[in-house]
Design a protein that fits this description.
899 residues; alpha+beta; Calcium-transporting ATPase, cytoplasmic transduction domain A; Calcium-transporting ATPase, transmembrane domain; Rossmann fold; 4 domains; nine-stranded mixed beta sheet; eight-stranded mixed beta sheet; 49% helix; elongated; disordered N terminus; disordered C terminus
Amino acid sequence: MGDFRVIGLTTAQANEKLTQYGPNSLPEKRSAGLWLIFIRQFNSPFIYMLFVAALLSFVLNHYVNGLFIFAVLLINATIGTLQEYSAQRAAIALRKMVPQSASVYRDGVICTLDSTDIVPGDIVKLASGDKVPADLQLLNCQELLVNESILTGESMDASKQAEQFITDDAPLAEQSNRVFAGTVVNHGRGEGEVIATGARSQIGLIAKDVSVSGTTKPPLLQRIERFTLRVSYSVLVVIALLFTITLLRGEDLATVFLLGVALAVSAIPEGLPAAITVALAIGMRRMAKVNVIVRKLIAVESLGSCTYIASDKTGTLTVNKMTVKKIILSDGSRYEVSGEGINVHGDIRDRGGLRAQAQAIEPVLLAGLLANEAELSPPENHSSHWLARGDGVDVGFLVLAAKYGFEPQQRQHLYPEIQAIPYESENAYSASINRVNDKTCLFAKGSAERILPMCSQSARGTAFNTKAIERQMTQLANQGYRVLALASKTLGDNNTSGATLDPKSQLKDLDFLGLVGMIDPLRPEAVTAIKDCHNAAIEVGMITGDHPKTALALARQLGIADQHSVAVSGTQLNAAREKGAKAFAKLVKSTQVFARVEPTQKLQIIQQLISDGHFVAVTGDGVNDAPALRHAHVGIAMGKRGTDVARESSDLIITDDNFSSIVQGIKQGRIVYNNIRKVVFLLISTGAAEITLFILSVLFGFPIPLFPIQLLWLNLVTNGIQDVALAFEPAEGDELQQAPRPPKETIFNRIMLQRILINAVVMGTLAFLVFIWSLDQGMSEQTARNTTLLLMVLFENVHVLNSRSESRSIFKQDFFGNPLLLFGMLAAQGIHIAAMYTPGLKDVLNVEPVTLELWSRLLMIALILIIVDEMHKLLLHRHRPVNHAANMHWNNHWRKYHP
C-alpha cells in the first residue's frame, strides 16, 4: 500500500478513468428558456376563456374588442414572464463547494490539479485549511480534524482515524475513516484514496435530491389554482344558462355570442395577475427592510402561510461556536461565563456576580490554554473579529482565557511548551509539559471520564470526592453541555529536564482542577423569536445532526420542547420506516426534536409534515439542509454562515442570520396575503356585479347593458389602477395575533363570500335600475350605457375603500394611510372623465360627457355601498367571539403536540 500511495495513478490511467466516470463536478439542472416561460403563462382556464372570447369577437366583426382582449392576454403574459424569469436562479450551486485545485499524486509525484480532473483511485494529499475535493478513504493521517457541519450538522470537528474499520452503511457522522467533498480540514494532515467523485459523492447524492423536479407547490399557487377553477366553472354555468335563455327567446346568434363574450369578460379578473405580482413585489421590498432577501417572488406569501417551521440547530438557533459557559472548581465553587462564540468581551463571575479571583480560577485557565493546539489572534486592520484556527474546543478555551484578561499567544510564549500529547479521539484527552516560571509542569484536559482516573487529589487542598464530581458531570450533561475535566502536576523545578520525560508516563497522581461545561450557545434572540412563533400559532421543530441529549436540552431552553418531551434519533426514524408509513407518521408527530438526523431523513420528515397537512418552512445553512430547503413550501437559508448550496436551494435568505427576522418575514407574508385577498375581493365583487347586471337585463328582456370593450375598460383601466394601489396597503396591526390560515382554506372563505354576494347584488341591482331608468327617460341605448358605465366606475371608486379591511370600519382606518390608493381613485375617475372628451377614444368606448348634476346623483347612489358594507362589518363584529373561538380551536389543533 505504501508504494501505491507514493506512485498514485499514471496520467494514462487517470485519463481512462476520467472518460469512464466523467469530471468531478455536479450537473446543473437546465433552466427553462424565456420563450418556454412565456408560453407557460397561457396555461390557465381564464386565459382559455378570454382567448375564445377574442376569437368570437373577430368572427362577429368586433375587431376592436378582439384586439383589446388579445392586448390583455399579451400584457398578462409579459408580466408573468418577467416575474418568473427575474426570480429564476441557478437551483444548484453545489459545484462551488468543490475546491478548484487539489494536491494529487500523479506519475509518482505530487502535482496541483484542477479538482474537476480528479478521478476515483487518485491519491489526494490534505493539509490544514484545505477543502476536501472528493470523497476519500483515508490511507494515513496525523491529528486530522475535519469540519463536517455542512453535511452532518455537528458543531464539533470530526476526528479522523485511517486505521479504523467502519461499515459503509454507518451514519456519516460516524465514518471516521473517510472524509467527504466540500468539508474543511481544520487541523492535521492526511492522504486518502478517492472513492467517489461528482454525482457519486455525498454532496452529489444530496444534489440529486435537490434537483428533483417534483418540488412542493407554494400555498398561494395552490389557492389561486383552486380559485381560478371554481370561478371558471361558475362562469361557464352562467354563460350556458343565459346563452340558452337568449336562444329560446329567438335572439339572433350574433347577439347571443356577443352576450357570451361580454359575460366572459365580466367574470374574468383580468387585472389579477398584475395586481398579485405588484403585491408580492411590494412584500419583497418590505421584507428586505427586515433583513429577508426574497429569491423567488411567490415565497413572499408562502412564509406568511406556514404552519410549521422546521429549523436546523447548528448555525441557525445556535452560533456554531463551542463556548465555555460553566466552570466548577475542585472545591465545588461555580462560575458563569458570558458571551458566545469568538467574542472575548464576555466575563467570568461567580454565583454572586463577583468577578472570578486569580488564585481560584487561573489554574483552570492555564491548563486549558497550554494543553492546546489552536490559535487565537487579535483583530487586524480595524476589524472587530478575532481570528481563530484549530479545533473548536481548543479555540473555546483560548477565548475563555482572553475573557479573563490573558493574551493567549503571549501566555503560550511566556510558558514555553517542552513536550505535548496531541488530542486523539481514541484518547479523548490532550496534555502538554511547559515551563511555568521556575517550575516544570504538566497540564491535561479532556473528557471527564478519562481525566478523573488520572487524578489522586484535588487542587487547593480540598477533598477529592469522585462521587460528588460525577454528580456535577451528570448535571452539566443533562443541561446539554459537553463536560471536560482539567488537571495539572508539578514535575519539578527548572533543573528538571522535561524533554527527557515521557508525558504519558506522568499522567497519574494529577491534581484535579475542575470541570468545564461547553456548549454551542443559543442565539440570544432565538428564544424570543420562537415564543413569537408560538403566539402566532406556528409550530417550531428542531432537526439536527447533533447528539439527542444536547439537542433536547437546547430545545427545552428555547421553548421548543418541555420536560416531558423526548428527542427522536435518526436510528429510530429508520426503524419506524421499516415498520411502515403509519409508524413513521406517528413517530414524527410525537416530537418536535429530531437528532442524529441525516440529510435524506430530514427530507423524509419534511415530506411527512407536508403529508400531515402542514405548510412547512425549513431553515438551514449547510449542504445537509439543501434537499429539505428545496422541497419545503418555503426554504429559508442563513445569509452569513450559510453555504452557497443552502442559499441557492432556498426561497428566502436571512441576511443577519437572526431567527427573529423570520418572524418579521412571517408578518410581511401575512400582510401580502391579506392584500391579495383585498384585491381579489375588489375584482371579483365588481365582476360579479357586472354579471348580476347582465342576468337582470337578460331575465327582464332588456338590451346588453355594457359592451365587452366597456367591460374591459372597467376591469383593466379604471379598476386596474385601483387594484394595484390596493396592493400597497400597510399592516392592519394584528397579523401576528392571528392563527395561520388552515392549509385547505381557499381564498374565498365564508366572510369573503358573504361580502362578495352582498356587494355584487347591491351594485348590480342599482346599476340595472339606473340602466332601465335611463331608457324610460327616453335616452338612447348608447346614452343609457354611458350612464351605467359611469356609475360602475363610481362604484369601483367607493368599493375600493370598503376593500381596505375585511372587518375594520372605514371610519376607524387611517384615511391617508395609503396615499397611492387615494391617488388611484382620483386617477381612475379622472381618466374616465377624460375619455368622455377625447376624440377617437370616446367613439371606441361609446361614451360621452355628462352633466355635473347627473354625475353627483350617480355618486350619491354609489355611496350606498359604504352603508351596506359598514352594516355587514357591524354584524361581523358582533359575532367576533365566535370567530375568535374558531381561531383558538385552530391554534390548539396545530399546537396539540405541545403539552
